[in-house]
Structure formats: structure tokens, C-alpha cells
């Protein structure tokens, strides 16, 4: 049986629209599926609406992937089965939406001050329904002939330490975990090995996460080795956490993961999927 609790649409940085992603998941015989766009549930909303109009046995779970601060690092927390109408969750999503809009404006102001007139409206037009981000400014700079490609756009204007490198505002780990749990959802530490923490620091993260009400850890994210999965299974067992898994699908790529994770590869740990 296939599940997938981590995926992205054009509402954040994915390549497929919510409808296209639903079609892909249904065609792929995914049993339980969640869309977890970065800091927005607009993609899930559109997908849920689309899914009411097509046949399918798949169970669609609401989801989001929040960025947050913890101990000087940006951590990703996935929320599943969250209610975006719950006051705490709605306020959190609005806060992050506003923060992204403000950040986009600031990047544009800086580019326009450098002589790139029309950067804001240009990038907004490219972003369309998606949240405005640096990739849209890069696309606009390329289209205008200011740079040759994405690499040059980031090397010259948008990358770390360049004028367009405006730090995003992220809430604290405890805050986003709180929004998720208060709205009836399950909070999951996404891809725990991607932060490249020491064993000690990773355990500290888990302790703080549990104190904030967090309940689960992602033991499989996209492509990873069996060793890594086993390491994360041990972590889940030790801290008595539920487990989750997903492809983290963004787009078709030569070595990228496709949708769907086979449940029997996950062992007999307590899965978040047992909740619904
Ligand atoms: Mn992403
Ligand atoms: Mn992530
Ligand atoms: Mn992701």
C-alpha cells in the first residue's frame, strides 16, 4: 500500500498545479495523500475542491510545511490533518503570508534601487498564484536580459550576501508546533537528517519539539539510504514518537523521488496514518 505525506504544488515551489498533483496521485494508486506546501494551504484547498469533482478512492489529508526558527537554524515542521479555519492556524498562516509579501516587496525595492525598474510587478506576474519568492525575481531578471540564467541571477543579485538576500521572518518552533496541535493536527519534524546536526543537537531538537506538543518524526523523505531510515526509526522509538513518510515531490527530475512510499518499508512503528 502506498502513502505519501509530503508533497508540493505551484502554490509554493512545486511544478505541478494542485489538480495535476491530485491526478498524478490518483493515477499512482496512492492510498493516503497529503499536500504540504511551504507556509500556505492554498494548494491543499484547491486540490480538495478539485478532488470532489473526480472519482477516486484516495484519502486526501490536509497539510502544510512550516519553516521556523530553532537554536539559530531554520527547521521544517510538517502539519497534517490541520484545520486551516481554526483561529490559531488561520492567524499563523496569515502571519506567514504577510511576511512573505513584505519580504517580496523588500527584495523588489532593493532591486529597483539598483536600477531594475519594474522588478516588483514583473516578478508578481511570474509568480501568479504562487507565493512571491526569489526564483520569480530570478526568472524576471533572465526574461529582461539582465542575467543569463538562474545561477547568474543568484550569484549577482539574489544569493547569500547579495542585495536581494532578504532574510525571511520565521516564527519559533514552539509557535508553529502549537498552531498545528491546537488546530487538531499532528506535528512532524520534517527530514531530521537534512539539518546535519550532531546526534546530541538532533536529540535536543526532539526534546524541545516534544515539549511544544510535537508528536511525530519523518523517517523517510524522498530518496535516502536504508541506514538513514534505520537511524530515524531508532530515534522515533527512543522518543516514543509516531512516524511519517513522504516523497517531498516538487517536480519530475532525473534522480528525484516520484510520488508514493510503500508502507511495508516502514516497519511496525506507530504511523501517523493510523490516525485516519
Ligand atoms: Mn521546497
Ligand atoms: Mn523541507
Ligand atoms: Mn518539502
Structure description:
This protein has two domains: 2-86 and 173-275, Metal-dependent hydrolases (TIM Barrel); 93-158, DNA polymerase, domain 1, CATH 1.10.150. With 276 residues, the protein is an alpha/beta fold. It has nine helices and nine strands. The chain starts with a strand and ends in a 14-residue tail after the last strand. α4 (119-127) packs across α5 (134-143). The strands form two sheets. It has a five-stranded mixed β-sheet.
CATH class of the largest domain: Alpha Beta
Average per-residue pLDDT, rounded, comes to: 94
- Residue stretches low in confidence (pLDDT < 50, at least 5 long) are none
What is the tally of beta strands?
9
Strand content: 15-25%
Hetero compounds: manganese (II) ion
CATH topology of the largest domain: TIM Barrel
Shape: globular
Major sheet size, sense and barrel closure:
5 strands, mixed
Helix content: 40-55%
Number of domains: 2
CATH arch. level architecture of the largest domain:
Alpha-Beta Barrel
Spatially, the strands of the biggest sheet line up as: 4-5-6-7-8
Pick out its properties.
alpha/beta; 5-stranded mixed β-sheet; 9 strands; 2 domains; TIM Barrel; 4-stranded mixed β-sheet; globular; 40% helix
Amino acid at each position: 500500500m502506498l502513502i505519501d505525506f509530503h508533497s508540493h504544488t505551484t502554490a509554493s515551489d512545486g511544478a505541478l498545479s494542485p489538480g495535476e498533483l491530485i491526478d498524478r496521485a490518483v493515477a499512482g494508486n496512492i492510498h493516503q495523500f497529503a499536500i504540504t506546501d511551504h507556509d500556505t494551504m492554498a494548494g491543499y484547498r484547491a486540490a480538495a475542491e478539485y478532488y470532489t469533482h473526480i472519482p477516486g478512492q484516495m484519502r486526501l489529508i490536509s497539510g502544510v510545511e512550516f519553516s521556523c526558527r530553532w537554536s539559530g537554524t531554520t527547521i521544517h515542521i510538517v502539519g497534517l490533518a490541520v484545520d486551516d479555519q481554526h483561529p490559531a492556524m488561520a492567524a499563523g498562516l496569515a502571519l506567514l503570508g504577510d511576511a512573505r509579501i513584505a519580504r517580496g516587496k523588500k527584495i523588489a525595492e532593493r532591486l529597483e534601487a539598483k536600477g531594475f525598474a519594474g522588478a516588483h510587478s514583473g516578478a508578481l506576474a511570474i509568480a501568479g498564484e504562487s507565493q512571491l519568492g526569489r526564483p520569480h525575481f530570478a526568472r524576471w531578471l533572465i526574461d529582461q536580459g539582465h542575467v543569463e540564467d538562474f545561477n547568474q541571477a543568484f550569484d549577482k543579485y539574489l544569493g547569500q550576501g547579495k542585495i536581494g538576500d532578504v532574510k525571511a521572518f520565521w516564527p519559533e518552533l514552539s509557535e508553529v508546533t502549537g498552531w498545528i496541535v491546537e488546530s487538531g493536527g499532528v506535528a512532524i519534524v520534517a527530514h531530521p537528517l537534512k539539518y546535519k546536526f550532531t546526534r546530541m543537537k538532533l536529540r535536543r531538537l526532539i526534546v524541545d519539539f516534544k515539549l511544544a506538543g510535537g508528536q511525530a518524526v519523518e523517517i523517510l523523505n524522498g530518496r535516502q539510504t536504508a541506514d538513514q531510515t534505520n537511524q530515524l526509526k531508532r530515534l522515533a522509538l527512543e522518543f516514543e514518537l509516531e512516524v511519517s513518510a513522504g516523497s517531498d515531490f516538487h517536480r519530475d527530475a532525473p534522480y528525484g523521488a516520484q510520488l508514493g512510499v510503500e508502507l511495508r518499508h516502514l516497519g511496525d512503528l506507530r504511523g501517523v496514518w493510523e490516525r485516519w
